[in-house]
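Two quick folds needed for the group meeting slides. Do the first one here.
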Amino acid sequence: MQQRYCIEVAYCGSKYHGSQSQINANTIQSELEKALQIFYKQTFSLIGASRTDKGVHALQNFYHVDTAININHKQVYNINSILPPDISIVNIYKTLPDFHARFDALNREYKYFIHQFKDPFLNDRSWYFPYKISSSILNDYASIILEAKDFTFFSKKGTMTQTSLCNIEKSLWNFDGKNIIYNVSANRFLRGMVRGLTATMLNCARKKMPVIDFENLIQAKNNQKADFSAPSNGLYLCAINYHHHSFQDL
């Protein structure tokens, strides 16, 4: 009898062309499916919770899969030994038959990491942005983001979606002296949205754009004026939340 499982994973995306399978491209999903096939001697077709782009990292992402194989927690160690060192299965859960990793997610949380002093050890983990930035004006912008509903302005051209409405639950900037982190969570995100939010706010802050002008910029809904230059290496999918009853421990 088929059982639906949900696989929780973490990965460094630097060497991969995103999380979702693509023809003739090395992805997180393809590596997971390959490792599962090697261990269980059968093919698997995973469904991902959140599609991360080339070079983007994840502290937590999920995939669901149906199989008649009885999977137990002890096997996580064995599958991880097959996976490359920059991908790790954190846990595997039993779920209800109608659980969907993508559509059942309540919200997703991202962080974008920026370092302001050149550091070779952060080269593929954070964006080097060596410009003086006002923390107060960035958080003023972040408050505007928190109040916004229509994010057409921050949606990349060619996005295939029926609506640009998003419910932003958290939007704030944190400074620790050497590093800057933008933290944002929402019920959904548009293609390129977090990188667009990050780069646009930073570059508007460099120009010392008044908050009212920033708000008017967003309300104009012209994504050609948005800035998507923030590189993928600074972006982390940090958490995906579900109802507490979605998972059962193996």
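Then this one, please, same format:
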Amino acid sequence: MKKLTIILSVVAVAALTSCKKDRVCECTYTSNAPSGPVTTTNVDKITYSKVSKGTAKKACVTTETTYTGATYVSTADCKLK
């Protein structure tokens, strides 16, 4: 019984530890040009080395910035791949 408890404990600890590996965050940037309704789109891939999935999720976020002087909006739509 003692061996079974030890084996189950080791398996539980291994299952609960986060796997640290390279994670890729793909961001699509969209912004309205200040001179008119032209939209430009750029896609970037950002690699986080040896991090857990939770840490990568916290870093890979979608943001939107509004510039009030020129009614200019810039959006970064990011997703963890």
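Slide caption for protein two: The chain has a mean pLDDT of 80.
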